[in-house]
Every structure is written in C-alpha cells, then in structure tokens.
Amino acid sequence: MEKIYITKGEAETEQIGEAVASLVPNNGFVALYGNLGAGKTVFTRGFVGKLIPKAKKLVHSPTFALVNEYIGTDCKIYHFDMYRVSGDDELYAMGFDDYFGNGIIITEWSENIPGSLPEDAIKVEIERLSDNERKITVRTSFGGDEK
Predict the structure, then answer these.
(1) b/e string for 48-72 if b means 16 or more Cβ within 10 A?
(2) Helix, strand, or coil here: 132?
(3) Would 143 be classed as within a structural domain?
(4) Chunked in runs of 10, what are the mean pLDDT values of the chain (147 residues)?
(5) pLDDT value at position 145?
(6) Which contiguous run of DSSP H or E holds residue 93?
(7) How many folded domains does the chain comprise?
(8) C-alpha to C-alpha distance for 107 and 105, rounded to whole angstroms
(9) The domain containing residue 131 runs over which residues?
(10) Rounded distance, CA 55 to CA 127, Å?
(11) DSSP code at position 38
C-alpha cells in the first residue's frame, strides 16, 4: 500500500511520523529515504514522540553516534544513521543485526543498505519541495499490494 502526504512545516512532518508509528509493530522496521535536510530526523521525532513521549525532545540525528536508543516502558526504538556506512562489513562491525527482534528499528539513509532491509520494512521517502513543504511517501507491504 502507498500513501502520499504533502506537509507544510515541521509540525505536520512530525504528525506523519506519529501516524506511521501507530502502524509499526514492536520489533518492526522503518526505512527512511531522502536527501540531506529532507526531514528524516523531524519525521523520527514525531515517530518517537508517539511511542515514547518523554524521549521526543531527545531525538537528534545519530550521524556521529551511528545509533541513538530511546527506551520506553513498553518499547525500545533504535534510530540509525547509515550515511557513512559503505557496506555489509561495517554493518556487521557495528552489530546492526543484534538489534533485530529487540525493538523497533528506524534507519536514515536506507538507500545505503538496500540488502540489509527486511522485506516487511515500512519505507518512507521524504522529498523536499521547498523550505517548508515536504512530499512524504509511505509504502507498506500490508493492507494491500506494495506499489
């Protein structure tokens, strides 16, 4: 299934992140795509805020840490930045596979790890249309055929 949204600011981008969070099962996977400054981290802030409200203000890009962990009462979210990842060896070295089955994984720059994404991942492409507007395409493999 595919849904397309046009947002007109960070608050609306966060709201789409919140909506997607309600679709993701525990141990689910969300793959984010988009250029620098597209709004991947803003989307993630809404996503995390929906599931772990106290962690919303802590969300920032994990560019240098590679992964940020948000631990709630009922769920864990692992927020990865794959911008600098250049292959399976690096994923292995960072223990990426160890996170599967231990919480929700959300990855920025998912285009850098296409072979490591689960088939049932929710795919979110964020395109910058202007300074404030974003086109967000959400693709899921449930609720109908993936497009």
Answers:
(1) bbbbbeebbeebeebeeebbbebee
(2) coil
(3) no
(4) 96 97 94 95 96 90 82 94 87 92 96 93 97 96 51
(5) 43
(6) helix 88-93
(7) 1
(8) 7
(9) 2-137
(10) 26
(11) S
Q: What pLDDT sits at residue 147?
A: 37
37-79 per-position pLDDT tens digit:
999 999 999 999 999 999 998 898 877 678 999 999 999 999 9
Token pair of 119 as six digits: 């088939």
In a domain, 147, yes or no: no
Residue type, 105: I
Cβ atoms of 117 and 90 closer than 8 Å: no
Look at residue 117 and tell me if it is in a domain: yes
Residue 144 lies in a domain: no
Please give the Cα distance from 1 to 76 (Å, whole number). 26
At 27, give phi and psi (nearest 5°). Answer: 75, 15
Backbone angles phi, psi at 2, to 5 degrees: -135, 135
Token pair belonging to 8? 């007109």
